[in-house]
Amino acid sequence: MMDAFAANLEDLGPARLARMVEISRVLNSTTNLDDLLRFIITEAAALTGSESASILLLDPATRQLRFKATSGSHAPKLLDFPVPIENSIAGAILTSNQPLIIDDVTQDARWNPKVSQAIQFKTRSILGVPMHDGERTVGVLESVNKQQGTFSFQDSETLSALADLAGVAVEKARLITQLTQANRKLNELDELKSGFIAIASHELRTPLSVILGYVSFLRESIDPELANQMDAVMDAAVQLRSIMQNMFNLQFVDTGRLKLDLEIFDFSILAQEVTARYIATATMERTLTVRTPNEPLPVAADRNMIEVVLGNLLDNAIKFTSRQGIVAVIIERHGHELWCSVRDNGVGIPLDKLDRIFDRFYQVEHFMRRQAGGLGLGLSLAKELLTLHNGRIWVESVVGKGSKFDFALPLVMAS
Ligand code: ADP
Fold it and tell me: Ligand 1 pocket: which of 286, 316, 320, 375 to mutate (most atoms <8 Å of CB)?
């Protein structure tokens, strides 16, 4: 393949060779398929002194050739026009993998006059060459109606050199187009998911507040023997509220509409308050401890958002630890930062999954086999909220032994 290409180049005159080098530069830097095809046919017609030029690419699904670009006023009518491989000039070039010169198409049995009639363009002569991507033949490049005289051997060599450069560039551009389309689809799917989450969280808020309101009211007025059952309903409703809070916050992070309500407070006190709430819940049979340093740890942060972060880490630590498990919150000062560590001796996370757990909707276990609830949003939201506070989060974990989630937040330093 490369030898044939080098031989083609040797046959070109110095002026054409210089033009080829320039063409190669443009082909390599153009990734838009339509621009690329248009450029190739303009050059093909100019280099061979022809009235028009066309590119036909092989459609791998139908195994037909299709016009993908044509110069001249008839171009739009020809776009995507199918040409069978059997009994057509372009098909013969593709299957023989050889250039073909036809001085008078009307004398050639493979000539299909219907195309000319349909577009009202009179085709007299054709020079066609195969286009390659590596060893694969991917299409045909044709120059139509030599303006002076007939197509020469040199025209054929020039067009072959152009077709070889073009074939690689076209396949590259096709792949880039496919990748861009796939990427756009994925983004659309993500937007749909986030849109659904926004609507669902909005719609669920009102009925949930009604449930929470009535349960707390009933809890106070019922027979103490039924209080346990009521506590279970309350716990479930509180858990639901925390899931919805994540769904609700997500849309604001997404649209950049999350406004942080910054205030200066002691992080240790907030951590103790949040942890105490978990210890107080009826289902909290695990050992939950919190250790804070003796000095205050002032942070300038949005209190509610930091509660969400710590709450999500505690929810997970509790969810993924057995009822006899141990969960510890340890807070330390590290220079100009506070480090908060939430540790558990639960199921742990496999090493190869660790870098994905902060992705949206990611859950280590398949959602159909999961015991624990959740939407796979807690950690991604925690990470995004910490980033908004110039903080960081990281994790260490061993399967069967437990997990340790740490986050760092900048401290407000006394000036
Ligand atoms: P979810 O709400 O589904 O728990 P998260 O984003 O909070 O979503 O967590 C993502 C996944 O990371 C979880 O589904 C779980 O597989 C894993 N994970 C998070 N925290 C822990 C933990 N403490 N122990 C074990 N696995 C965890």
Answer: 316
